[in-house]
Design a protein that fits this description.
Helices cover about 30% and strands about 25% of the residues. The protein folds into two domains: about 120 residues, Beta Barrel (Lyase, Ornithine Decarboxylase, Chain A, domain 1), CATH 2.40.37; about 210 residues, TIM Barrel (Alpha-Beta Barrel), CATH 3.20.20.10. The radius of gyration is 21 Å and the shape is globular. Strands 1, 10, 11, 12, 13, 14, 15, 16 and 17 form a nine-stranded mixed beta sheet that branches. With about 350 residues, the protein is an alpha/beta fold. The two termini are about 35 Å apart. It is built from ten helices and 17 strands.
Amino acid sequence: MNIHDLDTPALLIDLDVMERNLSRVADYTKAHGLNLRPHIKTHKIPALARKQIDLGAIGITCAKVGEAEVMLEAEPPEILVAYPVFGESKLNRLMNVARKTRLLVAVDDLATAHPLSAAAVAARVEVGVLAEFDAGLHRVGVESERLPALLEGLRALPNLKVRGVACYPGHIKSLDPAGEASLEELSALISRIANGHEIVSGGSTPALFESHKVKGLTEIRPGTYIFNDRNTVAAGACARQDCAVTIMATVVSTARAGQMIIDGGSKTFSSDRMSTGDNGTWGELQEAPLARFHKMNEEHGYIALDNGEQFSIGDRVRIVPNHVCVAMNLHETVYGVRGDRVEQSWAVKARGKLQ
């Protein structure tokens, strides 16, 4: 099938680029003695998780229990749920995951650890835990000074096995001088914390290829690297040619001079702006990089043709999204392509798994 046989909007994955991204990171982690536990929040597809595992990933990372349930299809050797799990229903479902593969859960409070322990006792399973500390994002995780008390409390709980510590350095968005300074602070923090722990888990896509500079880190959990997006390019973590995903849309109106409307808006691309805060556009047109995708309604994308670009109704354009993780969550089916040939289609099985 040719890509132009697809209906639009359609999310396309350039398989050559994706495979190159996967191999590059697999090679990097092996070269630097780091374990790779990729986050599936970006692709949300069990078959792609399996590709990551086959390339050497020691397991996968999920945010929600529903994602972990779906990802069992990939037969991962281990799943880390890197998100606070609270509530009887979620814990019961999580125990079913623990019966089918090794399970790790990140914990930053004994108030969530106690019911997790009780659920594990009732289910007669052992659950690994990572004590989460704040590395600078100020989202979840205890302050480093409180980490020893959290670890002590976790070790006292039955059916929980403390396997190490975790953080998410999501505050490091780029490797400019400020980002480099933050990376040095992170290394100093982790080097103080890391001693004696089997697992010291961290990492992100923007700082991915600097992970070996963080002393004491044993594994990284990047997600976006499989596809990359405009934010990853802006962070300096990849080049434009490393972006594997484009969203193909059709021009449906040219009624207003200097403007065209495409058949995708916020329900296709998401409403996430650039993390750098610049220029307020929603994606980059592959065919006309200077055209401005500057406004969206739910189903309409407004593109200003300020430089005399000419498009007609029925023309198709391919757009690199700002934030690919959220865009993936909006599409039921996505397509793997080489050139103009569609080689593969996947259901995005973990989309919408909010619980």
